[in-house]
Amino acid sequence: KILITGASGQLGFVLTKALQFKYGIKNIIATDINFHSSLEGHFEFLDVTDLIALKQMVVDYKVSQIYHLAAILSAKGEKDPIKTWDINIKTLTNVLEVSRLNNVKKVFFPSSIAVFGNNILRINTPQNSNLSPSTMYGVTKVAGENLANYYFQKYGIDVRSLRYPGIIGHQSLPGGGTTDYAVEIYHKAVRNENFECFLEPFTMLPMIYIDDAVRATIELMEAPSQQISIRTSYNLAGMSFSPKDLVMSIRKSYPYFQVNYKPDFRQEIANTWPVSIDDSKAVQDWDWQPEFDLNRMTKDMIANLKKQLLTTK
Ligand code: VAH
Predict the structure, then answer these.
(1) Which residue of 32, 113, 197, 296 has the fewest CB atoms within a 10 Å radius of its CB?
(2) pTM of the model
């Protein structure tokens, strides 16, 4: 059985569906502290900071793989850094310890481009960059990558990880990230509303469409173990664009779409992140190739959000 934490989150919700489809709905246990009403299949409430509850679930359902997606994101994390440290680190150490003691074979841990901070090459940021993150979220991801690597080296737990760019999808909303604008903007456009953007127009960031993000995750987890040369976390690229590029792409369908720029504290976070990512290790080791560029993503987002609007009216 495969257990997912954070299954009601932006990525968790879509990844749960993909795993149910691939491995059979009966073999997936989706967990979260909140219930997403569109989730189907086996769901359990689980607070992953509760070691005993997590252990119980792993033992009861004979879990052999865990996808640990529950975490606090970058922008929200800055409102309460210590809580972010406590939750992100406690949940990961719980997952790794329970895995070590209960024969869980494989673990997935999401890292992020937030591991990078000042002192990097911001264009085509290399895999082996100096990691000095500017947010507590990034600090927990750097620590998490090292914990993952430690559990692999010391105990042989097959932990695998990706440094996701900002994830964009129509199925679910992100919660508290610096890249969230790129999802919210589409929701406004299809409603013919104006958008207030919290980043400046030319802030270029690495992003990925959720279909590509989910496929990358499954491809990494399915790759033969001897092909995995990186046990901290793989750089992963999809596309790179700025709010201005995104607006131009949306205007192909909504020529009168208006955006006001009102940068807030998230601008400072974005300023320390890469513009684009060198993911040649992922390409080499497990053949990574993204399918969506900005315009293809925009078409798909708009078509799907329009459908959603019609069915909820
Ligand atoms: C955030 N979307 O903005 C997340 C992410 C790319 C960064 O990990 O916090």
Answers:
(1) 296
(2) 0.97
